[in-house]
Amino acid sequence: xxxxxxxxxxxxxxxxxxxxxxxxxxxxxxxxxxxxxxxxxxxxxxxxxxxxxxxxxxxxxxxxxxxxxxxxxxxxxxxxxxxxxxxxxxxxxxxxxxxxxxxxxxxxxxxxxxxxxxxxxxxxxxxxxxxxxxxxxxxxxxxxxxxxxxxxxxxxxxxxxxxxxxxxxxxxxxxxxxxxxxxxxxxxxxxxxxxxxxxxxxxxxxxxxxxxxxxxxxxxxxxxxxxxxxxxxxxxxxxxxxxxxxxxxxxxxxxxxxxxxxxxxxxxxxxxxxxxxxxxxxxxxxxxxxxxxxxxxxxxxxxxxxxxxxxxxxxxxxxxxxxxxxxxxxxxxxxxxxxxxxxxxxxxxxxxxxxxxxxx
Length: 360
Known about the structure:
Layout: H1 8-15, E1 34-39, H2 43-52, E2 56-58, E3 61-66, H3 81-89, E4 94-99, H4 115-146, H5 150-167, H6 180-188, E5 197-202, H7 213-224, E6 228-232, H8 234-241, H9 246-256, H10 262-273, E7 276-282, E8 286-293, H11 298-305, H12 307-311, E9 313-320, H13 321-327, H14 330-335, E10 340-342, E11 352-358
Parallel strand pairs: 2-8, 4-5, 5-6
Antiparallel strand pairs: 1-3, 7-8, 9-10, 9-11
């Protein structure tokens, strides 16, 4: 998401390696959201697959939604207004693309390139929409609470502090929630400004490796907000995404002073933003990365593959991917006694290679 003409569709096309989204130098080039799937770069998965002799490799993916540009007054129906806000409401997290480049050939919707002003404009519109929503919900909850409705009282306990935060011009994601009931009720409000956010600074090609003063200002804002920021050149990433030969891609990146594509950093940051890790499975048939919430247990990971795995769970045989790779594969790891047997309550680590034993 972002203002019109900041490079959203260009970045989207690079992320999903397709030309699905129309790219144009005019507001509302994107009207209906474009939806695509971005594979999560995972060198360890490919190395584990090689060691296992897997015929197929399935990476974890993020679903990415390219939403129309927002304009000032969207909360009151300006531009695509309610349609835009409705599309934002349906996602789990926000990838906020911010223009950090000057280009006379690409118009700016507010007349001048000012990334902090742009961020403030969008965040204000999201907060105004949240305020309107909460004020409506508060009226109904008060009436029901007076009648002794406990659920309404719990809902009010989430609405009131959220309203206070928004009235102080602070996004709802900054709310400190005291207990599980409050967190559940707050989540049910589905506030736009409560969604976690990743700031992506779109710079020109010359600044792709180092960023510039504008991207540094965005980074400072992100740090103050407890968020992450990634610097990319969307136009450059679109070119890199078209290079299928890995050697050619590496040579291109080296010439630009980049170790990895900016897209890799965006996708990994998005994975973290959603609170996800992945565990790996590998057989001769297939090697796969399975995304799960951080803190998931072994039995929950087993259920991610199939409910029978969780229902008849006996144990999980596991080893960290890096250790498996260093040892040279499963057989060597078993011979060295490095594959552990873990029970139901084992908390899965990011990159654990797992084999589940079950009986149903």
